[in-house]
Amino acid sequence: MSEAGGGDTLSRVVDGVNAAGESTVGVPVSSLNGGRAGNENVINVIDVSDLSDPRLADYSHQTDVALRKAQGTEHGLYLAESALVLERAVRAGHKPRSVLALGGSVDDARAALGPWADSVPIFVGPGELLAELTGYILHRGIIASMNRPALSDARELLRDARIVVVLENVADPTNVGAIFRSVGAIGADAVLVTPRCSDPFYRRAIRVSMGTVLQTPWTRAAEWSVLGPQLHDAGFHIAALALTPDAVSLREFVARDARPERLALVLGAEGDGLTPEALAAADTVLSIPMAHGIDSLNVAAASAVALWAVAG
Hints:
- This protein is α/β, with parallel strands linked by helices.
- It folds into 2 domains: 9-147, CATH 3.30.1330.30; 154-311, 3-Layer(aba) Sandwich (Alpha/beta knot).
- Helix content is 33%, strand content 17%.
- The chain has 13 helices and 12 strands.
- The chain has helices spanning 9-15, 29-32, 64-68, 83-91, 106-113, 127-134, 154-159, 173-187, 203-208, 224-233, 250-255, 276-281, 299-311, and strands spanning 45-47, 77-81, 96-102, 122-125, 142-147, 163-167, 190-193, 218-220, 237-241, 248-249, 263-267, 284-287.
- Helix 8 links the parallel strand 6 and strand 7.
- Helix 4 packs parallel to helix 5 (106-113) and helix 8 runs parallel beside helix 13 (299-311).
- The radius of gyration is 23 Å and the shape is elongated.
- It starts with 8 loop residues before the first helix and ends with a helix.
């Protein structure tokens, strides 16, 4: 990159040299751009002044799909929003690429980065400028670009699990995130998502889950022609939540003396519910008793009720 004029520190730092041609490696970036109170000796805190800098590309109006297919990465990227979610991502062993933070959130970002605090670039700027870059306001002060981990084989997740949740074609990332939060809070050992289910690593799903997507073992499952036999071979009783004439009340199911030792709870898409293939694979179809003429709950609410009932 050629030398930039004026105060364009960010452009010069990309080359690792200053305007005089001297190396900036190991020099606090903040000192090259007028200093930042409290971070003068932190070499990886970088003031944002040039939104075209290629190192900011992960945040530049990127869609979740584009991040998932990001070139130059092994498995794609996702965005972790807030210090809490970033901390949980790091604890889960996920590797950060960079952090974008409001000026007052640098210390929170460094604390959340843990062992990466001194090596991962933290790009810092005012809210208006960062909103121009991302297309949205950083209400939580921090967003981090993270490397997606490799997904596990479904058989590996099933090996030691007692309760698993299967999400079939759930399209809304908000519902996916809320279901993962229930899984983490109430208790299930793994989540399997079908090929057409919304991606749990989408930004909204991660945010709504409060980062539990990053803590809960999950993977993409195969179609039911493969998934059904996988679950049965692993000893799971498949219980599908649906409104069918032969559905068993959830209350009755959990009151049985001989409850399944291993249970797979299957939840379907908003509106359409479960596919015929899912219902055909089920050993039991369950329904949640309703009152006041209401026939069903939102899929996220239903997941919480069903998990609470079977986890006891």
